[in-house]
Amino acid sequence: MEFYKNLKFKDEVPKYIQVANFIKNLIDKRKIKEGDKLPTIRSLSKELGVNNVTIVSAYNKLKSEGYAYQKVGSGTYAKIKDVSSSFRKEYSRALKKISTKDLTEVVDFTGETTGEVLFPIDDLKYIINEVLERDGANALLSENRNGYTNLINTINKVFWNSKLNEEDIIIVSGAQQGIDIASKGILNINDNIIVEKPTYVGALSVFKWRKVNLFEVPIEEDGINLDKFEKILQKNKIRCFYTMSYFQNPTGISYSLEKKKRILQLAQIYDFYIIEDDYLSELIYEQSLDYIPFKWLDTNNRVIYIKSFSKIFLPGIRLGYLVAPTLFREVLQNSKHNTDITTSSLMQRALELYIASGRWKENIKYLNDEYIERYTYMKFILDEEFKDIITYIDPKGGLNFYLTLKDNMIDTKELFIELIKRDVYITPGAMFFTSQMYGQDSFRISFYQTDKYKIEKGMKILKEVLLDLTEKNNKK
Amino acid sequence: MEFYKNLKFKDEVPKYIQVANFIKNLIDKRKIKEGDKLPTIRSLSKELGVNNVTIVSAYNKLKSEGYAYQKVGSGTYAKIKDVSSSFRKEYSRALKKISTKDLTEVVDFTGETTGEVLFPIDDLKYIINEVLERDGANALLSENRNGYTNLINTINKVFWNSKLNEEDIIIVSGAQQGIDIASKGILNINDNIIVEKPTYVGALSVFKWRKVNLFEVPIEEDGINLDKFEKILQKNKIRCFYTMSYFQNPTGISYSLEKKKRILQLAQIYDFYIIEDDYLSELIYEQSLDYIPFKWLDTNNRVIYIKSFSKIFLPGIRLGYLVAPTLFREVLQNSKHNTDITTSSLMQRALELYIASGRWKENIKYLNDEYIERYTYMKFILDEEFKDIITYIDPKGGLNFYLTLKDNMIDTKELFIELIKRDVYITPGAMFFTSQMYGQDSFRISFYQTDKYKIEKGMKILKEVLLDLTEKNNKK
Fold first, then answer.
1. A13: domain range?
2. Which intervals hold domain HTH gntR-type (chains A, B) (predicted)?
3. Residues B191 and B308 in one domain
4. Is residue A269 one of the residues assigned to a domain?
5. What is the pLDDT, as a whole number, of residue A84?
6. Which residues sit opposite B31 in a β-bridge?
7. Does residue B414 sit within a domain?
8. Are A220 and A351 in the same domain?
9. Does residue A202 surpass a pLDDT of 60?
10. What is the dihedral of CA B105, B108, B109, B115, to 10 degrees?
11. Which of B53-57, B193-197, B290-294, B399-403 has the lowest mean pLDDT?
C-alpha cells in the first residue's frame, strides 16, 4: 500500500482516472509487477479517502486498457501492458488454419507446423515392434523417475563419450518440459534471471509463470553482449542465465568459444547457473563451426543442459533429456516426478533402440544432406535477390534465417498479414520479444517445412509483397 | 522483519540459541511458512543488534535440525519440520530394491510398483501398427495443444454421452500432469486450498511447490467432514478443494451423493473450485455404489475434472485428460502448452483406437473380473483372520484397503520395516499425511500386484509380524 500514499489528487481530472493513471504508471515503471495483486476495493478506497465506486471505475478502466485482469473470486491483478498479445493470438490463429489448406500450395516459413517429416515411418514401426517383442510388458510399465536406464546409458555413450555421471541425466518429455522442470526446481519467486534478447517465447512463458524478474541482454553475432551482461551481474544477484548456444532462436547465431568460456567464468564469479537449451546442434553445415556446448566446458557444475530430440527425431514423440549439476540432481528428479511421474516408457525404449542400432546417425546424415541443400539455396536467393532490402547473419546450420529489413518503413507484422493472403507464412520479429516495441523490422524464415520448390515460390512472393509494401508506405 | 522485533533476549541462554528457538517457534506456528526466505545474515544481525556470527550460528542450528535449508547463492529458507521425510526416503529406497529381487517371492502390497500388468501386449502391438499404417507420418507429428481431435471426440462419446463441450477437454500426460497443470493454471502463491486428510502425496508436492496454504479436512466414511470444511470456508477465502471422489487414496472411501451435492453448493456460495481426481472409478465391485462424479453434477462450472488412464490402461503410457470449466479453458491450455507442448501423438492415437474399437470396454471387464476376485479374497481374510486386530472401511471397489490397528502400540512404520525383512511391502499411513504425527496406526495394502496366492502368503506373514510386534511391545 505504501506506493499509493504518493498519489495527490488534482481538481480538474476525475479521481478514478487519476487513480488508474497512477497505477498504470507504477506498472509501466515495474514498481508493480506482472501478476501482483492490486489492493482490494475497500482497502484502497480507505487508503485514498475516496468512494468505493471510484476504485471500481479505476480498476475497470485498467482492465479495459489491458493493465489489469480480474480473477474470479480472487481480486484484480496487474498486467504488464503487452500490445503484441493480440497479435500473438492472430499469429496462432493463422498457423492453425494452415492445416485446413491445400498443403501443396502453402509455403510455411514459420517452422512451427509439421506437415512434412523427414523420417522413415517404417523404421519406427519396425523398432516399436522390436521393442514390444523384446521387452513385452516391461515396455509398458513405468520407468524409474530418471528414465529408462538403457536409454540413459546409450545417451552417455553415443553423445558424451561416456563422460557424464549417469545419475545426473534425467529423461524428459521434450525440451519445453526440461525448461519447466528446471524452472520449478531451481527458481523461486522474484529470483532474477537473464535471457537473450530476442529469445524463445516458450521459455519466457515458463519463467513468467514462475514469477521471476527477467533481465534481457541483446544478442550479437557471437553471443550476448558481454558488457551489458556483466553490468547486470554487478548490480543484481542473478540466479540463472537461459541460453541457446547453437542456432539461437530466432537469431540463428552461435556462441563463440571465447564468449562461452567468459560466461562460465562469470557464472563462477557471480555465482549463477546456466540453463543451456540445445535444440538443434546436430545440423551444422559449415566446418568452421565447432560443436562445443557450455556443458563440455563446465568444470564447476554450473550448467543445466537441456537437449531436445523433437525437431530431429520426431515432433510428435515428446522426448529429450536434461543433465543436472550434481547439486541439483535430487531437486530436479523430484521436479520431474511431480510434473508427470515419468516419460512414456515405450517411446524411451524405441528411441534407445533407434540410437543404439545406428539408425540415429544415419538419419542425421540424411537430414543434414537434405537441409544443407535448402540452406544453401535459401542463402543463394537472399544474396542474389534480397541484398538491397535485407541483412542477415549467416547461421551456418540449423533451420532458420533471421532477416532484418534495411528500410524500416515496414512493420513485419504488417508484412505477415499481407503474406498470408498469398499463403506464405513467416514469423515476425515481435514474436520473440517481451514488448512489441522491438523486432518490428525483422522476421524469421525457416526451411524446415519447405523444399526447394517451395523456397523458390515463397521467396518470390516475399519479394513482391515487400516491394509492394515499401512502395505503398512511401506514398503515404 | 516485523516478527523479529518481538524477540527479547534473556541473559542465561546463548543468543544464537534464542534466535534459533524464536524462529523455530515462528515456523511451528506457521507464521513463517515453508519456503519463506529468512532475512539475510546482515539485516537480521542489524535488526537484533547482535554479531553476524550469532545469526550464522542460529541458521546453522536451524539447518541441522531440519528447520531451514540453504540455497546455493540465494540464502536460507524456512522448512516445515517434517520428521517423516527421512522415512519417505527409506520407503522409496525399499521400493526401488523390489525390482532387484526374485519377483515370484516378493509380496508387494504397496501398489506403487508395476511388476505385473494385466494388459494384452499383442493388442497394443496390433493397435500401434494399425495407427502407423493408417496415419503414416501424421501419427508422429505434434497434435494441437488440446490433444488429438479424434481422441477428444471418442472420450466425449464413450465416457460422457457426448455431453461435454469438446473444447473444454485437454489431453494430458497422466493425472500427475493434470494436477500440475491445474495448479499452475489456477493457483497463485499464498492462495488457500483445502485437501483431504489423509491424501495423495503426489498432489501435496505439487501444491507445496506452488507455495499455497494447505488446509486439511479429515475424511469420513462418505467423504470429508462437512462441518470442519465449512468452518474453514467461513474463515478463509478458499481458492480450491482437491478431492478424489471414488476410492480416495489412501482411505478407499467414496463420496456419498449428498456430500457431493452439498460441496458443490458450498463451492457456489463460497466461490471456490473443485479439482476432482478420478483415478480408478472403472473398478466398482458392488452395485450399491453408483458412479456419479462431481463433474456430472456440476451445473455451475465449478469442477476441474482430471482422469487418469495409468492404472487402467498402461502405467508406462502416460495418458489422461482434463475437463476444464469454460472460464479456465484458455489458461489451462496455455498451462499445458508451457509444460510440455503436447502429449505423445502416437500414444494418443493408440489409445483412441483402443477405446473406439471396443477393446477398452473388454479389458475393463477383464480387469473387474480379476480384481473383484482379489478384493473378495482379501476381504475374506481380513474378516476371518484380522477382525480382532484391525478395522477398515469396505471400499467396494478400487485396488486398496486402508487398515487401522485396534492396538495402537505399534507404529506402522516399524511394521513396514519388519515386513520388508520378510519380503512383504505395505504403505504406512504416515506416507499420506503432511506430518508424521498422523497415520501411525494405519497402513494401506493394495492387491494391484498380488494374485490370490500372494495375497494368502502376504497376509499370513503380515499377521505373524503384527502379533510378534504386539507381543514385543507389550513386554517393553
1. 2-78
2. 13-81
3. yes
4. yes
5. 54
6. none
7. yes
8. yes
9. yes
10. -120
11. B53-57
Lowest-pLDDT range, A24-38, A232-246, B216-230?
A24-38
Q: Which of residues 176-195 of B touch A (CB under 8 A)?
A: 176-177, 180, 184, 188-189, 191
For B8, counting Cβ atoms within 10 Å of its Cβ (0-12 exposed, 13-18 middle, 19+ buried), the class is: exposed
Find chain B residues with C-beta within 8 A of A125's C-beta: 128-129, 132-133
**Do A58 and A164 share a domain, yes or no?**
no
Distances (CA, A) of B466 to A343, B237, B388: 38, 45, 12
Does one domain contain both A342 and A198? yes
Beta strands in B233-301 (DSSP E): 238-243, 273-278
Looking at the fold, whether B143 and B42 belong to one and the same domain comes out as no
In this structure, are A156 and A255 located in the same domain?
A: yes
Over range B321-349, report the average pLDDT: 90
Give SS3 for A197: strand
Which CATH number characterizes residue A173's domain? 3.40.640.10
- Nearest residue, CB atoms, B340 vs list A119, A315, A318: A318
Residue from the list A116, A142, A173 with its beta carbon closest to the beta carbon of B340:
A173
CB nearest to A140's CB, from B37, B143, B314:
B314
Strands A390-392 and A400-405: antiparallel
> Do B99 and B133 fall into the same domain?
no
What does the pLDDT average to over B260-277? Answer: 97
CATH number for the domain that contains residue B421? 3.90.1150.10
Q: Looking at beta carbons, which residues of chain B come within 8 Å of A177?
A: 339-340
Q: Is the ipTM of this complex over 0.95?
A: no
pLDDT for res A16: 84
Inter-chain contacts counted by CB atoms under 8 A, chains A and B? 185
Rounded to the nearest angstrom, the minimum Cα separation between B410 and chain A is 31
Q: Does A125 touch chain B (CB under 8 A)?
A: yes
